[in-house]
Amino acid sequence: MVEGKEIRSELKYTKDHEWLRMEDGLCRIGITDYAQNALHEVVYADLPQVGRELAQKESFGTVESVKAVSEVYSPMSGKVIEVNQKLAEAPELVNQQPYGEGWLILLKPSSLKDEVGSLMSAKDYEEYLKKLSEEKK
Asked: 12-136 — its CATH code?
C-alpha cells in the first residue's frame, strides 16, 4: 500500500493507473484504487462497444466524476468481449470496488507475451506511486 491505496500483487499495472488481471487467457481491466481515489465520486463510465478492436495504450472510454473526466487506456491489444453493464446503473462501483465489481472491460488479447512484459508488477507500480508522491511534495 502507498498512502492507504490498495495495490494487489496478482495484477499488472500501467503508468496511466489501469490494472489488468489474467483470467483463463482473457484480460479483465479496470482503474486502480489510486485512480478512483484521485477522481473521487465516479458518476458515469463511457465504455466501448463489444467487438471493438483495441491497440495497446489506445483510449477505450472515459470515467467521469464530479471532479473530472479521465480517459481510460487499454493495457493490451485485443478485442472487447464484454463491458461491465453494472456500471450503467451503479458507476459508484468503480470507487467502492475498483478491483472487484467496478471492473470496466474484458478483453481477448491479440498478442500476450510482448505486451504483458511492458506492464508493471505490483512492486513496480508501488515504486511508481512513491515517485509520483515525492514529485508532488
From this structure: 2.40.50.100
Q: Which of 31, 4, 37 is nearest to 104 (CA)?
A: 31
Domain ranges of the chain: 12-136
> Which residues neighbour 84 within 8 Å (Cβ) at sequence distance 6 or greater?
45, 47, 93, 101, 102, 103, 104, 105
Q: Are 96 and 65 in contact (CB under 8 A)?
A: no
pTM of the model: 0.93
pLDDT in tens, 107-128: 999 976 678 889 999 999 999 9
What secondary structure, in 3-state letters, does the chain show?
CECCECCCCCCEECCCCEEEEEECCEEEEEECHHHHHHHCCEEEEECCCCCCEECCCCEEEEEEECCCEEEEECCCCEEEEEECCHHHHCCCHHHHCCCCCCCCEEEEECCCHHHHCCCECHHHHHHHHHHHHHHHC
Strand order in the sheet with 69-73: 42-46, 59-65, 69-73
